[in-house]
């Protein structure tokens, strides 16, 4: 009897002890902080961080089963990011439709590699070993980069991001109407159709009202340009006329200088001729009347007498020289006219 009574008491004591241990251990385990994720969420405001350094990005959706299967592998890959010297990020396409449009994501999950602003699409499995080998062995070098208009940083993909962002806002608004407010889906579609028509009419009216002012501004700019061109042409014509006048004045001055030089040469020639005539006259006067000197001169050899006669200028030669001087003066007068 005593043994039968002790059994239930021991069982109760053991149960109480286990409960006490569990109660004391529970708060300690609850007090442990959860492990912080090394994956950095990317948004439209901080996505430009991937333009510097080396990155791996994952595009996912919370409702995507394939994305959920790779979450643990992606977290393990991010933990080794410091060893691999790479940053790891993720993009929720539901919350960030603009980024999904910028990278033109059409399938989920989607992986991208970025190295100093050059992007490449990673099409391998989202397994830790494959991702690690992709970085260590630099397999990304054999992948064609997204260049030109395909680059997420290009102007074209920026416009695509804007379109995807607008479509995402419309989708969120549609869910708000149908889920939160309980409005039927066809009412939401009618609302968006009417809103599209009103927006189109508003933009058309705005263009219609502002078009005349735009056309007037364009015409005034064209008229201003035409005036500037006309002023420039007039300035060119004036400058050409001044240059022509200056050239004519220079030509006249050159002609006058040439005429002065010709006159100086003619005056020199006349002076030389006059000096020659005076010398001849003085020599003739020096010979004097015939006398003893004449006798002695007759005794000179005939050859010396002939040489003296040949050296004396003939009157015919002086006439030719005077004629040539008169002709030069008449030519100079004609030039002056």
Automatic annotation (TrEMBL):
CDD domains, per the entry: PDI_a_TMX
Annotated membrane topology: Single-pass type I membrane protein
Transmembrane segments: 189-211
Subcellular location: Endoplasmic reticulum membrane
Main location (coarse class): endoplasmic reticulum
Lineage: Eukaryota, Metazoa, Chordata, Craniata, Vertebrata
Signal peptide positions on this chain: 1-22
Protein name: Thioredoxin related transmembrane protein 4
Encoding gene (name): TMX4
Bias-annotated ranges (Basic and acidic residues): 323-337
Keyword Nuclease belongs to the record: no
